[in-house]
Amino acid sequence: MESKLVIINTRGPENHEKATLPFVLATVTQSLDMEVVMFLQSSAVLLAKKGEMEKVTAEGFLPLKDMLDTFLESGGRLNLCSPCLKSRNIAVEDLIEGAQIVAAGSMADEVMSARQVVTY
To answer: Comparing C-alpha atoms, which of 30, 114, 117 is closest to residue 72?
Structure first.
């Protein structure tokens, strides 16, 4: 892979469409043979709780869980904001497989090495 896209998602289950759109972009970008790293911040970290993605369905789109599976199977990295998890009392054992907890330094490194950054 020659280039990398970083997607920062701040939308959680309170808005199904806006929570889904970053994953649409991610999977389409992966089909172009680009590396994709996604950061879930703010209420978006709620999506990484076991059982939550299955509840998110936006009209006209594939179910969010299906897109997440494709994203991870295609080598995507799903990073979660450590302070955002802590403020919502989400424990490590409550998280889906494949999610990584990171701090701001990791995000800064990824952003600085990315060709493009998109924020939702």
So the answer is: 30
Residue 32: both structure tokens together: 């172009």
Q: In which residue are the tokens 């990315």 written?
A: 114
Tell me the two tokens of residue 112.
Answer: 């600085």
Parent domain of 11: 4-119
Name which of 81, 8, 77 is nearest 36 in CA terms: 77
Q: Name, in order, each residue with C-beta under 8 angstroms of 84's C-beta and a sequence gap of 6 or more.
A: 40, 41, 42, 44, 45
Which residue type, as a one-letter code, is found at position 50? Answer: K
**What's the pLDDT at 43?**
98
* Number of domains forming the structure of the chain: 1
Tell whether the model's pLDDT for residue 85 goes beyond 90. yes
Q: Per the confidence metrics, is the pTM higher than 0.90? A: yes
Tokens of 47: 């999506």
CATH code of residue 15: 3.40.1260.10
Beta pairing, strands 35-40 & 99-102? unpaired
Which DSSP string corresponds to 24-38?
A: HHHHHHHHTT-EEEE
Averaged confidence pLDDT in the chain: 96
